[in-house]
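Q: Give me the 3D complex with zinc ion.
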Amino acid sequence: MYRLAVAVDTPQHAGLGDVLDYEAADAWAPGTLVRVPLGKRETLGVVWQADDDAPDASAADGSPVVLKAVIEALGSLPPLPPAWCALVSFTARYYQRALGEVALSVLPPELRKLDDAGLLKRLRKLDKALGLLPPPAPKRKRKSAAAEVAQAAEIATELAVEPHDTPTTAAEAPQRPPLTPEQDTVLASLTADFNAAQPACHLLHGVTGSGKTEVYLRAAEHALSIGRQALVLVPEINLTPQLEQRFAERFPGRKLVSLHSGLTAAQRLQNWLAAHLGHADLVLGTRLAIFCPLPRLGLIVVDEEHDPSYKQQDGARYSARDLAVYRGRLERAPVVLGSATPSLESWQHAQTGRYRLLTMAQRVGQGVLPAVRIIDMKTQPRPPRGQEPPALAPPLLAAVKERIERGEQSLLFLNRRGFAPVLHCTACDWKSGCPHCSAWRVFHKLDRTLRCHHCGFTERVPRACPDCGNQDIQPMGRGTERLEEQMAEALPGARVARIDADTTRLKGTLEQQLAAVHAGDVDVLIGTQMVTKGHDFRRVTLVAAVNPDSALFTADFRAPERLFATLMQAGGRAGRDAEAAARSEMWVQTSVPEHPLFAALRKHDFDAFAASQLTERDMAGLPPFSHLALLRCEAREAAVAEDFLKAARDLARSLLPAEQLTDVMFYAPVPPHVAKVAGFERRQMLVEGPTRPLLQRLLAVWTPALPALRSQHKGIVRWAIDVDPLSI
Ligand code: ADP
Ligand code: ZN
Ligand code: ZN
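A: Here is the predicted complex, encoded as structure tokens.
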């Protein structure tokens, strides 16, 4: 018998406590999926280590240990490659989560339901779908580990035949535009890197419309031409269909799969299998795709690398962007991080030479960036008493009308869905608060509901004020629903459309709505952040940020960086058509026009903005000049949460010698932006270290000690460590 160390998903927190020993008749290779008993359940695990030399397990005192036996190995599947295991180990260690939890959470959920026979069926189905080879012969009962491993290897090679190019006829041959000089330079640098002993991480800083996607396509083409696979990450599911289409058109003979949470469980498994077995040449996906095993990985692209969606916000709070960089180094694959507004972390690495900076400063063709106009809302005429100011300042409204007359499109960006963020009683000052959260409930007019966007609590709008019975309850402020209504009134005859999470709930509706915009069936498009990313709208000549200020008034030190990126990206939707580019405009309504970010925005000067932000961060000792971890917790009572955090701080100080901690700063526990959600008080404590290794050394001893501390603090319902937190 052999002893196998198997990673399983136990409720244990961090450390290697969740790699359990089992015995098996065969020495299954590390990376093999196995079904094992765990308590009263049967569960999926991943062999982490196979110990041929220690067939007889014994405890420290010499007494024999009785190991439970592996129930079944999913031997039809080639083991997950060592690089996958290494990436998962790193993720668990760095983000302070249990190894088994990470390993199991990044595998397609469907795998948990399958035994080996079921898996074999799926593999045959996949073969049939691909039309590659006759199904493998039915498997006989296995004898020895050696035979087993040989068989697995055989299946792996059988399944992993190189997909043959389907010959493309002349008509089908993809159109490749000649590269611009900037694209040419960037690609030469990238392709040269494929031969490097240790390929670099490249930061592609290209303005919106500079043709970054074409660079990704050509880099992928190069990877494919040398027999490698390419992995392309995008921040949002919404952006996968259009990217998928562009890649599919460019690589008609190649197998392309997508991986994101919008797929059915069966589809996700099938695509994952195609990637793992080497059938798929191209994998496009959202952050979870970073864990997709790829035996021939040759390129990783992270599009819009600055986007906060790359950070997972629960469980293992990993950054797929940062893991892409790690994985590239691990598997010796070039990495391309692309953005018009890189994260300051990546930008700083490019300045110090850790990343290689590639720049594309020009729009393709005759495209130019839109002229930016900042409207000072403080100087706009005041509305009559008791009335709210109009959504658009008069000069902006006039500019929109001009566009309509010329048959051009305007995009009005307002990052707040619903009709109004709060309802208000004019008699007694009642407001539509959520009883379970420290937040207002948003008024949705279409179905006349008050909805909490934090806990989901939804009620019909009351006919009268619940406190005083007054019938005059009024919306305060403006969401996209209301803006749509007001624009329809202000612009009679105009075709006004709205795209946000509420209008796109049904599958396929987003595509339909975008198609209508592209077809020119819309004059004024109102939308949340959803419409500001990635889309190549050709007819838009005016983009307006209706009310961006609220994004600035938070305690988060990243607020200006994020708003700048959002506005640059929104502005990037205008002026993509060469003919109309010269009269394209980006309007911003703000009551703090003196904020330096608007001056940089006006000049489209990312470099200057980044430089000023980095100077501030350096002086304040904030990332990227320091490293952060956030301990969050939730309790029924705020005092309980605060006590836990203070005790955790004292514990941390007792774990490392004081001289090692002199440069580590523990901030006071504070409530986050929304302090109470679904009845639980949230508190958080920031820990700042001057270097990553020092912070990691602290976390490595601190996190494992926290479960015991929690058991002394009875009221704590949840706690979590967030390493490199994005929103604080
Ligand atoms: P980005 O991702 O940098 O915002 P895109 O890749 O969307 O830019 O490119 C903007 C537009 O320019 C797209 O319509 C694209 O098809 C076109 N384009 C890109 N590269 C070229 C090129 N070399 N020649 C002609 N058109 C190009
Ligand atoms: Zn009232
Ligand atoms: Zn709520």
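A quick observation: Residues 134-159, 161-171 have pLDDT under 50 and may be disordered.
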